[in-house]
Amino acid sequence: MIRTRQGRVLAVNSRRSNLTEIKVQIPGEPEQKAYNYDLLTGPVDAGDTVVLNTTAVNKKLGTGGAHFVMANVSNPKHNARQSGHIMKLRYSPCQVKVLAAEEPDSPDAEIIKNTTSLDGVPVVVGTLHSMLAPAAAGVKAATGGRARVVYVMTDGAALPLPLSNLVYELQTKGLVDATATCGHAFGGDWECINIYTALLTAKAVARADVIIVAMGPGIVGTASPLGFTGVEQGEIINAVNILGGRPVAIPRISFADARQRHRGISHHTITALGRIALTPCTVVLPELVDTGQRNLIQDQYSRAWPVDKHRLAWANGRPALEELDRRGIRVTSMGRTPADDPAFFLAAGAAGIYAAGLIHSGIEAGGQ
């Protein structure tokens, strides 16, 4: 059940498009942080009385240590966005109306309707939100910043794109040029109903040279073979092939994660690409200094699925990390930096660099 509490807004910590971070006081509790999604609940200011969803913080779940505003009692009648007929978070207390890019009232509806193929656009597919930054940096590094990168956020984890500090920084600093949110995810530059129309929107409307697809912050996982939201990687690869794109998979690789199932190539990658993906992609492995690590991931790859199922390529992901440093972007994944777990970030960077090499090539790049 949802745990709700009423609190008073003590201060506004920060504002950006559709997201306000506030400090709140709940009677009998210490001051705490909360997020207000302006698109859902309107503007909020110091002194307002708000209804808060406190469930995750009370359960000590890993959702950023913040409450979420469900309603602003002091300002219950805000001006909702008028256009659009598509509801996201449907039939929930937080359902929100959006103008979907493909619906008739959208100025982009006709071009999306008439676009049936990705025409070979490279699509980098990741499983963790933290893969986005090095992948985008890899594309930019390999093209001298000229390639246009569009990020498609799925609804596999966090649903509101404005929650992502990372996306905000990547757009501000020029590594991501535009965004689209699909399924029940919302808050992108374009709203889309599913992954297929999101990919077509990214290509035909947002004019992507490279599309990067990954969920938002907060992957859900268990120790069970299929019980994690990253299985969507395989489904997205299928969608990219259906639409005539060129899918490039980021393998989840780590030598710092203490869990054996994530050592080397994670079971997430082996499951998503081995069991869920029914169509081929290029799997890009990073060039690693440590020969033992390189040999392990090569051996894991050789046993993960039939040898002719996917294409294998190797690429140097280091220029991607250098590009992040050059732009002053600090990245972490599960609290680990590139210095702590270089293989993880090099894998994502290598995929971006490889995808950049496919731009306008007209053919599927090599591999083995």
Summary keywords:
368 residues; alpha/beta; OB fold (Dihydrolipoamide Acetyltransferase, E2P); Rossmann fold; five-stranded mixed barrel; globular; DUF3866 domain-containing protein
Entry summary:
This is DUF3866 domain-containing protein. With 368 residues, the chain is of the alpha/beta class.
CATH class of the largest domain: Alpha Beta
Mean pLDDT: 93
Characterize the main sheet.
Answer: 8 strands, parallel
What oligomeric state do these chains adopt? single chain
Order of helices and strands: EEEHEHEEEHEHEHEEHEHEEEHEHEHH
Strand content: 15-25%
Please give the CATH architecture of the largest domain: 3-Layer(aba) Sandwich
The first-to-last residue Cα distance is: 51 Å
Kindly give the count of domains.
Answer: 2
- Helical stretch count? 11
Can you tell me the residue ranges where pLDDT is under 50 for at least 5 consecutive residues?
Answer: 362-368
How helix-rich are the residues, as a percent range?
25-40%
As laid out across the biggest beta sheet, the strand order is 11-10-9-12-8-13-16-17
| CATH fold-level assignment of the largest domain | Rossmann fold
Principal-axes geometry comes out as globular
Count the beta strands: 17
Q: What structural category characterises the helix and strand content? A: alpha/beta
Protein name: DUF3866 domain-containing protein
InterPro entries: DUF3866
Structure write-up:
- With 368 residues, this protein is an alpha/beta fold.
- It has two domains: 4-72, Beta Barrel (OB fold (Dihydrolipoamide Acetyltransferase, E2P)), CATH 2.40.50; 109-356, Rossmann fold.
- Helices cover 27% and strands 22% of the residues.
- An eight-stranded parallel sheet has the order 11-10-9-12-8-13-16-17. It has a five-stranded mixed barrel with strand order 1-2-3-5-4.
- The longest helix has 15 residues, at 342-356.
- The termini are far apart.
- Mean pLDDT is 93; it is low at 362-368.
- It comes from Desulfoscipio gibsoniae DSM 7213.
- InterPro entries: DUF3866 (IPR024479).
- This is DUF3866 domain-containing protein.
